[in-house]
C-alpha cells in the first residue's frame, strides 16, 4: 500500500511538473504574441505616417504656386492702397493742420460750469 501511495504521489508530482511546463509555454506564447502585435502595430503606424506625409507633400506642392500668386496679388494690392493713402494724406494735410491751429489758438476764457459765483 505504501508503494501504491508512493506511486500515486509520484504520478501527481509528474502531472504537476507537466502542468507547470504547459503554463510556462502558455506564458511564453502570450509574451511572443504581444511582441509580434506590438511590432505589427508599429509597422502599420509607420506606413500610415509615411502615407499621410506623402499626401501632405502632394497637397503642399499643388498649392505652392497658389500661395506665391496670392502673395504677389496681396503685395500689389497693399502697394496700391498705400499709394492711395499717401495721395489722400497729401491732399488733406494742409486743411487738417489749419483746423488744428485754429482750434489751438481759439481760446475763449470761461468759468468752469462747476464753479459757483461767489456774491461779494
TrEMBL record:
GO function terms (MF aspect): ATP hydrolysis activity; proton-transporting ATPase activity, rotational mechanism
Keywords (A to Z) from UniProt: Coiled coil, Hydrogen ion transport, Ion transport, Transport
Keyword match Ion transport: yes
Coiled-coil segments: 12-58
UniProt KW Ion transport keyword: yes
Recorded superkingdom: Eukaryota
GO cellular component term, pick one: vacuolar proton-transporting V-type ATPase, V1 domain
Family: Belongs to the V-ATPase G subunit family.
General function of this protein: Subunit of the V1 complex of vacuolar(H+)-ATPase (V-ATPase), a multisubunit enzyme composed of a peripheral complex (V1) that hydrolyzes ATP and a membrane integral complex (V0) that translocates protons. V-ATPase is responsible for acidifying and maintaining the pH of intracellular compartments and in some cell types, is targeted to the plasma membrane, where it is responsible for acidifying the extracellular environment.
Quaternary organization: V-ATPase is a heteromultimeric enzyme made up of two complexes: the ATP-hydrolytic V1 complex and the proton translocation V0 complex.
Protein name: V-type proton ATPase subunit G
Organism of this sequence: Hebeloma cylindrosporum
